[in-house]
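User: Predict the full complex structure for these chains.
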Amino acid sequence: MTPALGGTAPHTSAWPGWQRLPRDARDTLFMLFVIGWTVLPHVAHLPLWCSLLTLAVLLWRARLALANAALPSRWVLVAVLILASGLTLWSYQTLLGKEPGVTMVVVLMALKTLELRARRDAFVVFFLGFFIVLTHFLYSQSLLVAVAMLVSVWGLLTALVLVHMPVGQPSLRQASTLAARTALWGAPIMALMFVLFPRIGPLWGVPGDAQAKTGLSNTMRMGSVAEFAQDDSISLRVRFDGPPPSPGMLYFRGPVLTRFDGREWRVANFDSLDTLRAPSNLQVRGTPVHYEMTLEPLRLASLPLLEATDIAPVLEGYRTLALPDLQWLADRPVIERLRFRAEAWPQFTHGPRTSTPALREDLELPAGYNPRTLAWAAELRRDPAYANAGPRVLAAALMNHIRTQRYSYTVAPGEYGRDAVDEFWLDRREGFCEHFAAAFVVIMRALGVPARVVTGFQGTDATPVDGYYAVRQSSAHAWAEYWEPGTGWVRADPTAAVAPDRINRGSRLAPVRGLVAGALGNVSPELLASLRDGWEAVNNRWNQWVLNYSRGQQIDVLKSLGVDSPSWEDLALLLIGALSSLALGVAAWAWWDRHRIDPWVRQMERLRAALRRLGLDSATHEAPRALAARVRSRFGADGDALAALLDVLERQRYSRTTRARPDAGLTRAFVWHARMLRPAR
Amino acid sequence: MLAAASNPAVPLRQRFQRWIQARQPRTDTLQLTQRNVYILPTRAGLLFAITVFVLLLASINYQLNLGYVLTFLLAGSGVVSMHITHATLRGLTLHLKPIAPVFVGDAVLLDVVLTSPGSARFGIGLKVASAAPDSLSWINVPALGQASAQLSFVATTRGRNEVPTLRAETRFPLGLFRTWTVWRPATQLLVYPKPEYPAAALPPSRAVPGGAAKTRVNDGGEVEGVRAYRRGDPLKLVAWKKAAKAIETGGDLVSRDTSAAVHQALWLDWQGCGSLAPEERLSRLTAWTLAAARSNAEYGLRLPGQELDLAGGDLHRRHCLEALALWQ
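Assistant: Here is the predicted structure of the two-chain assembly.
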């Protein structure tokens, strides 16, 4: 496309100003601007070539519009489209799926602007625009995105209105007002349908790539949790009924990883019902913590409940299941925001009291990996102090080793090689929680103690917003459990040994801040914090009222309307009923409105009716002045008042100072005078 | 015609046409109400419906509450746009101004005045119903105001013609719906025959005495008339016999008027058109009428079964043209 860019060079001229642009050029530029705005938030997800190509095409189109030059031939577009498809294939190795799909839609939208010949082409651009707006919500449904996309929709509707105002040069303000009015009048329909449209489950399997990234998953590699150390997005919020437990107690339990192949940790095989039905032997003591949790759609079946939750929480639309390893699962991935109540017991024991065959899996180590660590463990065993030590003593020794041997806790531990544990434990000594947990478990197993890695979240934000404590992706955590005969599984968090603050005060390693936040944070940390808290309070309301609105809330709405056992059929009936009555109301209004006539004509009709009652018939074409003459000749001096009013009306309508609307006082005075005249006759 | 007669749908269609025409009586002032404003979704509207449906599917499948918001916002706007589109025409008053007569082959200019009793109306297109879809002439009507649009079509047959059915339509604001009305104006349109071109030469005229003609012939030889005696008239011009009668009745001397007014008596005759076909004769007579009116001559028109006597002026010209237009 560069040759064509060069070809239009002679047309370069000074910017004539927004107001003085020819109508076509202005409308086209406006539409390009709206398209640019709509695509802009995608720049973060799109490959660089796509952003640049889109920008180039939009600029090229703007230049053509300003120069009033011809559009490129279809072959150029086909060539660019083929090129873009090739680049998409190169970027993603496929043309299917979310990311390639978004890329192709954006490219198509940009290219379609070069083909705006008929009105049909314009419609294609608008409707592609609405699709792009929707694709943003696949990535984020935050308030900010919602506002930006509202502006987009408004812009697209304005451009549509402009297309349908073919006369003259309607101003953008006029068109945008008309578009906003259309949307605002449609808002009641939107609200009604949003509240009442039955929320049914997915119609077919959600593609795998729709999964949100999260620190929780059924596998763990070295560095996989650290990826999320910088991710400040919220995974869940909790509100405690009483005072919140101390941060050191706040372990949200996710998948438990037992199998280790040297590189990756995986969950145990629950391939038989027997293993699923194995007792978890959970025994709780003390007082429970009652809490309400709002879980973001993590698109995982795993429910990160607070340790240890013994009674299944009630989730609208899902069944829940407790695994023997104390993990809670939903029967399918959670793809909507869920709010539920549960109770947790901070003091608990679980796991088999005596050795069982199942524990053998918690001792397995892959052959040939991490030989130096295994040697280190054997060395420890040879130490007389630990030769016959129990698991608890060994764990304490490891913790002490971590605490005293200059290990450090870091967000960016760097890449580790094949024998990652060797490298971490003996050489580099810096890592994130998963490094410590993995090394701890490997050494415990080498020492003959059953041990496993537990993943989940640890800690919350220090201060609540609206009573809710946020748990962020950056709180994703990995810790360890070892088995002690007679007790069961015991939690051991080696991260607490190296970075006690991380666990006990919930303070995470501060990620590198952005430029603005960094500057603001340096000047006034309190301001930054309160701004963030305020924003999150608004965001929380948004989440609770808009994004969290699901089947449960719909059922509540129906119950508050007095339906005993609501079902989605009731919802559908209610929706149809409400929409029908709305339509009937509008139809009734239109029926009433058909009587609307020109107010001047209506006034004249009332005056003529008053004259008719006096026995003076007049025709519609007679002007007030002519009527005045007839009144004077008919009633003489008695009719002077009426005639004078008619003369006033004549002046009001036809003199230079014409009124915009009829004078209701004049009408009343005329009718009154006419009535006074009647008994006199 | 034969094929049409064997088609069973034809009577039905004719009945439908009659019903439609009965619904739409001819009128010069049409008040648009729910009864005569029609609305249907456009192709873009169907595309929009498909778009909204796909957005709904995506929102359901990905459980996107904001997707629902977007879908329902668009659906709501679409429904509202339907009402706005209908209300753009509903309530308007269309009025057709009187139409000036034209010649066959000329463009007829229709002046349509649109009056809004309420809010401003945008993007209303008017056209002759049978014209191409892109021949709409667009107009906005201000709030509580009037706007006039010009439509034109070519007159094809002479005589009194009915104004063709007109059509007003709009897709404002979003183009998802098209609302239209069909209007059959009552005014009849007079179409004169097409003037022959190049026009044949006028038939020879005959000078006729009398009247206030502007052409003066002063050959002095022929006696053409008398007039009141004017001071300085030579005695030999005094018409003594007439003067005596005039004096008897209390009048004055009269003189012979040798330079009496004459005018060209020009008969435009059907028979004078040679052996042309009737319509061609009418064309020629029309061209002659126009030429005669231009030359200010007095002229008369003879058609089979009809004769307009010698006269001049605009009114006569119009009468002649009307006679030509309406001749059967």
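The longest helix of chain A spans residues 568-593.
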